[in-house]
């Protein structure tokens, strides 16, 4: 999570440390006549909660008994769910007013969230598979304990899929983050994840990760080149010192950024909107017309600051452009199964071939490297450098 620039939670509570709060909440629910105990078990009475199903849109008659768990004849309604389960041999247990046992799977979340956030708070998150029954049951038991309980927004993320199948241990089609970042930079993985709206499923593939790696290299290379120019000038970009066309582009991006992030965190729109200001920076840095533009440095300063602020919000801002460009290059070499010395020797061979007008050999070397994700960049002064790119085979997929 640290590698992916995920901020740490303020609190990471354990169920085993909150048995008192869990038992107290169950006692409240029973006291409010929303639950009943039988032979050491405690069940929530869904018939007493008419709003049951409001989150998922499911009705009680839609829940077929025995589909998920065995039917328990002791229940008043087959849909009643456990708040407390009596102790079973070989399982951990705690003492309670109903005898030794353990919490049901849903009550622990309501009790811990109430302990730290109160019964009403803004955002409750989880995977889309938790809408029913987990979050539905949380709503029921929290409201049964406290009628003022309310969650303003339920946030449910989509799944990572492989060939449109959910990534899971049971299917054996999953990768850990540690495995992925052996070959791809963590921020390339983060960009890949942000490029799909969090509610939608995201299809994992090497081609998509290669594309994300190439894209994030382009972003950081652009900002690195911009930083090199700005380092030579001390300029504070002021609105009245920025050309109208640049100011218009800045305002356009900032409006898109605020509207998209305010509209259910549409990071996909923001990432797409970065294209125009990045292109403008590159034009100002590298084209003849751009280099001659009035207030060029002021424009670069304002554009670079705007993009940097957006990347910080998205969790994509590195501590150093130089370091991350080097790291992205190292990951690309690892995927290509080459060392930098080997790439540099290939560049020398190609340069020699071009000087001898052996253009077929020169093209063959370029294609050989491009096939494994190493793109060669020829500059006007005759030098050649390399950068990571999507391998030719994956470009065709």
Task: Give an account of the 3D structure.
With 397 residues, the chain is of the alpha+beta class. The protein contains 15 helices and eleven strands. The protein has helices at 19-31, 107-117, 131-145, 177-180, 186-194, 206-230, 244-262, 267-273, 275-286, 288-291, 296-314, 321-336, 340-355, 359-371, 392-395; strands at residues 35-38, 41-44, 82-86, 101-103, 120-127, 150-157, 160-162, 165-166, 202-203, 374-378, 384-388. The strands form four sheets. It has a four-stranded antiparallel beta sheet with strand order 1-2-3-4, covered by helices on one side. A hairpin with a 2-residue loop joins strand 7 (160-162) and strand 8. It is elongated and about 90 Å long. The protein starts with 18 loop residues before the first helix and ends with a helix. The model has no long low-confidence stretch (mean pLDDT 93).
Brief rundown of the structure:
The chain is an alpha+beta fold and 397 residues long. Helices cover 47% and strands 12% of the residues.
Tell me the major beta sheet.
4 strands, antiparallel
Helix content: 40-55%
What does the average pLDDT come to? Answer: 93
Which value, in Å, is the CA radius of gyration?
Answer: 29 Å
Question: Order of strands side by side in the largest beta sheet?
Answer: 1-2-3-4
SS-derived structural category: alpha+beta
Low-confidence stretches: none
Please report which band the strand proportion falls in: under 5%, 5-15%, 15-25%, 25-35%, 35-45% or over 45%.
5-15%
Would you report the number of β strands? 11
Q: Write down the overall geometry.
A: elongated
What is the element string, with H for helices and E for strands? HEEEEHEHEEEHHEHHHHHHHHHEEH
Distance between the termini: 30 Å
Number of helices: 15
């Amino acid at each position: 999570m640290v590698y992916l620039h995920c901020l740490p939670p303020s609190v990471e509570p354990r169920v085993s440390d909150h048995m008192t709060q869990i038992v107290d909440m169950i006692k409240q629910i029973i006291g409010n006549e929303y639950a009943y105990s039988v032979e050491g078990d405690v069940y929530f009475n869904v018939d007493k909660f008419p709003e049951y199903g409001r989150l998922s849109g499911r009705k009680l008659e839609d829940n077929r008994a025995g589909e998920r768990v065995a039917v328990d004849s002791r229940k008043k309604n087959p849909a009643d769910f456990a708040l407390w389960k009596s102790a079973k041999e070989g399982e951990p247990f705690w003492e309670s007013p109903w005898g030794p046992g353990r919490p049901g799977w849903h009550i622990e979340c309501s009790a811990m969230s109430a302990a730290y956030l109160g019964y009403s708070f803004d955002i409750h998150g989880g995977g889309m598979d938790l809408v029913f029954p987990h979050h539905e049951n949380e709503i029921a038991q929290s409201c049964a304990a406290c009628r003022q309980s309310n969650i303003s927004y339920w946030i449910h993320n989509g799944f990572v899929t492989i060939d449109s199948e959910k990534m899971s241990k049971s299917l054996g089609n999953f990768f850990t983050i540690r495995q992925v970042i052996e070959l791809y930079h963590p921020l390339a993985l983060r960009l890949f994840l942000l490029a799909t709206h969090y509610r939608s499923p995201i299809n994992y593939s090497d081609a998509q990760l290669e594309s994300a790696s190439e894209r994030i290299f382009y972003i950081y290379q652009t900002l690195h080149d911009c930083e090199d120019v700005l380092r030579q000038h001390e300029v504070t970009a002021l609105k009245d010192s920025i050309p109208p066309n640049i100011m218009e582009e800045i305002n356009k991006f900032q409006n898109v950024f605020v509207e998209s992030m305010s509209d259910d965190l549409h990071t996909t729109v923001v990432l797409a909107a970065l294209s125009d200001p990045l292109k403008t920076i590159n034009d100002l840095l590298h084209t003849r017309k751009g280099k001659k533009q009035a207030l060029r440095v002021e424009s670069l300063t304002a554009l670079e600051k705007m993009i940097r602020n957006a990347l910080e919000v998205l969790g994509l801002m590195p501590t150093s452009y130089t370091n991350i460009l080097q790291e992205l290059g190292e990951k690309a070499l690892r995927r290509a199964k080459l060392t930098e010395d080997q790439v540099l020797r290939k560049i020398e061979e190609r340069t020699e071939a071009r000087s001898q007008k052996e253009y077929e050999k020169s093209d063959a070397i370029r294609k050989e490297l491009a096939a494994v994700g190493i793109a060669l960049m020829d500059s006007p002064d005759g030098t050649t450098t390399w950068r990571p790119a999507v391998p030719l085979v994956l470009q065709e997929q």
